[in-house]
Design goal:
This protein has one domain: Alpha/Beta hydrolase fold, catalytic domain (Rossmann fold, 3-Layer(aba) Sandwich). It contains ten helices and nine strands. The protein has a nine-stranded mixed sheet, with helices on both faces. By secondary structure, it is an alpha/beta fold. Helix 1 crosses helix 8. Helix 6 links the parallel strand 6 and strand 7.
Length: about 325
């Protein structure tokens, strides 16, 4: 597996954007959480479980405000929470963007895993509709940014319109996500991260095969839901040991094989937590595609979400 990924890394030189050579020194999670902790989020529940809530970081001004959804990672484990994204949320809010930082039930707590983790992410995303008028939010386009395991969930949330009709995760008219940006993400569940205990963690997340559900990845892995219309952007760091650059290329290859596509940008000299740390080269790379001035005007990367085709329907 490692040899195969290393070979894939060589292919990254073709067709993938590279960040400038001058980069900030990589930081650790310890250094990130040692920063002064930003405050000012509004907590809104979408269910009765302790982890079923989202936090809105509203910017100054009357709005309407463009919205970025944040999805935290942590190997889908209960000991990691949405507060790890607070610095990213505050930075985006300071730029005039409303941030919807979502929490969800994870492995190690009641309801975590399949189907609860996925149902929670879907409910949290869809809750935006009920809050848009009250907080002056503009939901076209909506962009999702997910870090690590949250990269998988952000891509999955953008692909929900393609869920099989038989899946308990499928809902009518899910909120359209115009673009999903996976940063240090684990989007391809068939290429599990050793840092997250590999395949056993993925099996715990998605469940075991059964007669009724012979392929558990059919409604849990974004690659299986391709093609879906959201723009997919994968940002990887060359020093990332949780999600090395070859992970992004593996996902893109599978997306293309199924008729979809993904953009991959590799940031030289950056590690896993640089991806969500404002002030780093990696974070600057993550937010560059947002083109926040265009986002305020209802466009993302040169096109409006309303102009993008909606999902063609469920898989199969």
């Amino acid at each position: 597996m490692k040899a195969k990924l290393a070979a894939g890394a060589v292919a990254l030189a073709v067709g993938i954007g590279m960040a400038p050579a001058a980069v900030t020194p990589p930081i650790s999670i310890k250094a990130l959480i040692a920063r002064p902790h930003p405050k000012g989020a509004i907590r809104i529940a979408y269910g009765a479980a302790p982890a079923q809530f989202a936090e809105l970081w509203p910017p100054a001004g009357p709005g309407p405000h463009p919205v970025v959804i944040l999805v935290h990672g942590g190997c889908w484990q209960a000991q990691y929470g949405l507060d790890l994204m607070d610095w990213a949320a505050e930075d985006l809010r300071s730029r005039g963007v409303a941030v919807w930082n979502i929490e969800y039930r994870r492995l190690g707590e009641p309801g975590g895993g399949y189907p609860g983790t996925f149902q929670d992410v879907g409910q949290a995303v869809d809750l935006l509709r009920t809050q848009a008028s009250k907080y002056h939010l503009k939901l076209d386009p909506v962009v999702a940014i997910g870090h690590s395991a949250g990269g998988h969930l952000a891509l999955w949330a953008a692909a929900r319109g393609r869920l099989p009709a038989s899946s308990p995760l499928r809902v009518k008219d899910p909120l359209h996500i115009a673009a999903a940006i996976s940063v240090g993400g684990l989007g391809d569940l068939e290429t599990p991260s050793d840092a997250c205990d590999g395949a056993p963690t993925v099996r715990q997340l998605i469940g075991e095969p059964s007669a009724a559900r012979p392929q558990p990845m059919s409604d849990t892995s974004p690659a299986y839901l391709e093609p879906f219309p959201a723009r997919q952007i994968l940002v990887q760091g060359t020093l990332d040991k949780v999600s090395p650059p070859a992970f992004g290329e593996a996902y893109r290859a599978k997306a293309r094989a199924r008729g979809g596509d993904a953009e991959v940008t590799v940031v030289d000299g950056q590690a896993h937590f640089d991806m969500i740390a404002p002030g780093t080269t990696a974070w600057d790379t993550v937010i560059r595609p947002l083109a926040i001035g265009q986002l305020r005007g209802g466009r993302f990367g040169g096109w409006g979400a309303a102009a993008r085709p909606r999902p063609p329907g469920p898989v199969g």
